[in-house]
Amino acid sequence: LQLDSPVEAEILPTQPVAEAEEEPEEDEFEPDEEMLEIFAMEAEDLLGNIETNLDLLSADRENREALWEVRRHAHTFKGAAGIIGLKKPSKLAHRIEDLLDHLSQNEIVPSPKVLELITAATNCLRTITKGDTSPGTMARTAEIYNSFDLLMAELTASPVETALPAEKVALPVILPEVQTAAPAEVPEGAQHAPRPIVRVSIARLDELVRIVRDLVVSRSMIEQRIAEFDAHLESLARTTRRLQAANARIETDFEASMLDTPGPLFFNQQRNNFRVDTEDQNAEFDSLELDRYTDFHESSRALSEATQDCFAVTTAFEALKGTLEAVFDDQRRLIEETQEKVMQIRLIRFGSIATRLQRAVRVTCEEENKRAEIVIENQDVEADTDLLDSLVEPLMHLIRNSVVHGIEPPETRRLVGKPETGRIMVRLTNEETHIELKVTDDGRGISGGYLKERALRSGLIDQLAADALDADDLVSLMFMPGLTTAEKLTMSAGRGVGMSIVKESIEARNGTISVETLPLQGTTFTVRIPLAFAVAQALLVRSNGNSAAVPLKVVKQVIELSPADLSLNEGQPVAKIDSIQCPVRYLSDYFSARRPDPADVLNALWIETGDEHFALVIDEIVKAEEIAIKPLGKPLDNLHLVLGAAVLGSGEVVPVLDAARLSRIDPIPVAAAPSFPEPELKTRVLVVDDSPSVRHMTSKVVTAAGWEAMTAKDGLEALDVLRGEILPSVILTDVEMPRMDGYELVSAIQKDDILREIPMVFITSRASEKHRERAAELGITEYLTKPFLEAELVGLVEKLCLQHAEPVI
């Protein structure tokens, strides 16, 4: 730091610097190369953030947010450096944090001299982080450390004066830039060959993962198209078989009829002229001795050839389908392999941070004079490197808090019958859509009453708010900024920022943290964070017409619930499944829709997530499909019940449900749910005609009018449709049809008390009065002649719907 006057430089005390240099070296364990490499990358980000916020403070010294960010990153640097054994940088970062704590608590605006000192300390930390541990660097570190002591003494002595003219603070001379010192000598044999590593930014990997995720969606769409192609091919094969059967029947019947006919049936004019000339020549032949061909023969033969061509095309399509399926299987395999390889690039073993966690416990136990061991389960589980990096600091906080606040001193544990060495268990589970982290200790547990007392004493809550807190709310007080239960200030506890930072870090990634504690038995912290790039198997379900996807991994079983299986527990529905009393959730409640009739058998999914079980009632299961879960952007990112959205092969976008939160978050009660108007009654029109083209054209007119079209090819098929649960609002029928014509259909409908109420319209090419009179006798008053105008048909259906009672749902 540069001083304003040489007089101040002359009176600067220099003895403390010498004393600092003479302080005995603290015991430090030797960090391994992997730990130093990881710490160097983390430290670079932390120091860069500190420098960025120092620039903001230089521009606006009253920027409280920037001050808090410098304080937070210094706190994180302190913990990370202390864990791997770099105690000198950890202590220096601790001094930065102490200074900023004092400024924040006393609402002191940092002076330029304060900012320069922090900047010099940051430069010194960066130099040490890069591996420079030369005597000159260590001396400058001690000098800067001493400067913090002097400044803190000055601030503590006269805080009011310091808040105004910052130049009154006298500091020792510190170089504004830390010069690069000669690298320390490396013992022989310590040199290692550089490893071939390619550094790729996370942003580029994210783009690659996004492309692979879109490939998964594209694969699902191709699969859907192949399924549709297969369905059309099967329909074509059935049509071809019917055509072959009809052609064979025509040929057989016609040949049989020709035997009873004395002469040819009919010829065209050209063949008649030719026959006159040749008739006498063939007169000597009997009909069995010489075939005679008519126009019908030619038409029949053309039909037979067309049938054979249709069969050949069907066979070619089936061969093409087999080829497409083989190509698609290859594409599926390549996409799955690409997806696996790309995701592996981002994955890292959970056991890679085991050393850091063990050292965190060891260092904290040394500071607290306690004994504890850490057991890390599932070390071979791989997690996304970005997600795991974001979990390291919260995990360190939880472990240190377990030692400081949870594990009792050895003598206390001995008195209560526990082993003198406490145990902390850490378990990471990859649930395809989530990462679940559990930190469990066998300590004293968390006292909600003590947390409330400390919160009241600190002024964080008032007595009225404290009296309204239940047991869960009391435990959640630990996440309030500024609240600590530590009796003394140490590097591991007592700062009042640790647990609030943990919660903020987790919620920044849309995660949740929950606490379970029992007195004298211990505490379990459960952290759940959704994966940003997840591809998982899911069940597509529907409820009240709404579609959703449920991750298949959490579905234990598909079950049916009868009304006898349901009961109420404290006003909430529960069901007994395999001797387990499970809460029942209705998916329709989360869509603010009506629940299904309790008298019916209910379809349900038995969901198991973590230690929780519940039954999710749905209407139907559509199918199982592999989906790519895409995170929701703003403003939908605050929908806590969904993990994201998925694009299905059909192009439909469905929400992916977060089963864990469904079990904890209650929907709006049915009684308190807002009332919705009754759904508009759907108009359905049954089109009965033996001509496929007429059925198709009429159905398009009906659909274009906003109605639902139902079709039948003759009267018998129409009766089958009318026997179903869904009845039409209007029936449009032809008169001349095979098996059962329009007149016969009307007669059959008139015999049913329910069906006779459905209005009917005849659409036929027969426009004579005789046909109209026959229709009137049967009660048909509406008669359209082919071809008809679309507007005329639409107007007629609308008129009948208005005259008739309500359309049938």
Give the count of helical stretches. 25
Q: Please state how the strands of the largest beta sheet are arranged side by side.
A: 10-14-15-13-12-11
Strand content: 15-25%
Largest sheet: 6 strands, mixed
Task: Average the pLDDT over all residues and give the rounded result.
Answer: 76
Query: Per the principal axes of the C-alpha atoms, what is the gross shape?
Result: elongated
What's the end-to-end separation, in Å?
A: 84 Å
The quaternary organization reads as single chain
Q: Residue ranges: pLDDT <50 for 5 or more in a row?
A: 1-28, 159-195, 265-272, 274-279, 669-680, 805-809
Per DSSP E runs of 2 or more residues, the count of β-strands stands at: 23
Task: Give the radius of gyration.
Answer: 41 Å
- Work out the helicity level: 40-55%
- The chain-level structural class is alpha/beta
Compact overview of the structure:
The protein has 809 residues and is an alpha/beta fold. The chain is 47% helix and 18% strand. The chain contains 25 helices and 23 strands.
